[in-house]
């Protein structure tokens, strides 16, 4: 029982990190109706900015505090992601209002390649580290309850708590603020939102800024765990089954979908892996997403589309 709970807890913590990346997809899709293939590049670009500025700022400003360096680097990287969001709206999206979804999709692919190349030009192509002080040593918990206790990775636990706090803050933002309600109105109907005076261009800047912050936090956490390297952009691919499972238009769906995928990957690898061979953790999420596409293509919480003829 203890081993099962240990595996389950590890899956839940991994699932929260998947949810964090999936949120970027959901936010932009809700606001613009396009699947943002640049989300992985945004995660990488934000992580590179934070990693490099945490190295550069102490040299430029002449201090040695790692905590202060990470804090300032996070703020600088946040400003950079805001600037990226503004430029994306100003130079790309503003000229594509009311265009076909395929046109917007190709635009996000172009943005992804631009950010990948620009990140390599500005910050370099080596492997960098982000050390935000999260403890990496696992600890034993509940030893008095289960024989041998449960091994808990403190870094994963803290990362999952950060992801959960950000998800909660975004949920409150969408539900309780005027800007959040405007975002939901734009998501429901662009033309109707414009007709009542909601500026579509400003909303797109806001939602790309929020997606940029989400990408920065995701990049910081994944960079701390895996190191900042260009394969980090593929983390977004692990979030694709999450948005398919939860629904492209649902913030709660991104959370639930991430938890289901995270738990399913860990349990299948541990308990089914010995019978079907290793590597099940790599393809399990995609097979599950395929099954959902066949049975319920809109996802668990996505809006069901009914065409009347």
From TrEMBL:
<feature type="transmembrane region" description="Helical">
    <location>
        <begin position="275"/>
        <end position="295"/>
    </location>
</feature>
<dbReference type="Pfam" id="PF02653">
    <property type="entry name" value="BPD_transp_2"/>
</dbReference>
<dbReference type="InterPro" id="IPR052157">
    <property type="entry name" value="BCAA_transport_permease"/>
</dbReference>
<feature type="transmembrane region" description="Helical">
    <location>
        <begin position="7"/>
        <end position="28"/>
    </location>
</feature>
<keyword id="KW-1003">Cell membrane</keyword>
<dbReference type="GO" id="GO:0022857">
    <property type="term" value="F:transmembrane transporter activity"/>
</dbReference>
<comment type="similarity">
    <text>Belongs to the binding-protein-dependent transport system permease family. LivHM subfamily.</text>
</comment>
<feature type="transmembrane region" description="Helical">
    <location>
        <begin position="66"/>
        <end position="88"/>
    </location>
</feature>
<feature type="transmembrane region" description="Helical">
    <location>
        <begin position="157"/>
        <end position="174"/>
    </location>
</feature>
<keyword id="KW-0813">Transport</keyword>
<feature type="transmembrane region" description="Helical">
    <location>
        <begin position="242"/>
        <end position="263"/>
    </location>
</feature>
<dbReference type="InterPro" id="IPR001851">
    <property type="entry name" value="ABC_transp_permease"/>
</dbReference>
<keyword id="KW-1133">Transmembrane helix</keyword>
<protein>
    <submittedName>
        <fullName>Branched-chain amino acid ABC transporter permease</fullName>
    </submittedName>
</protein>
<keyword id="KW-0472">Membrane</keyword>
<keyword id="KW-0029">Amino-acid transport</keyword>
<dbReference type="GO" id="GO:0005886">
    <property type="term" value="C:plasma membrane"/>
</dbReference>
<feature type="transmembrane region" description="Helical">
    <location>
        <begin position="34"/>
        <end position="54"/>
    </location>
</feature>
<feature type="transmembrane region" description="Helical">
    <location>
        <begin position="203"/>
        <end position="222"/>
    </location>
</feature>
<dbReference type="GO" id="GO:0006865">
    <property type="term" value="P:amino acid transport"/>
</dbReference>
<keyword id="KW-0812">Transmembrane</keyword>
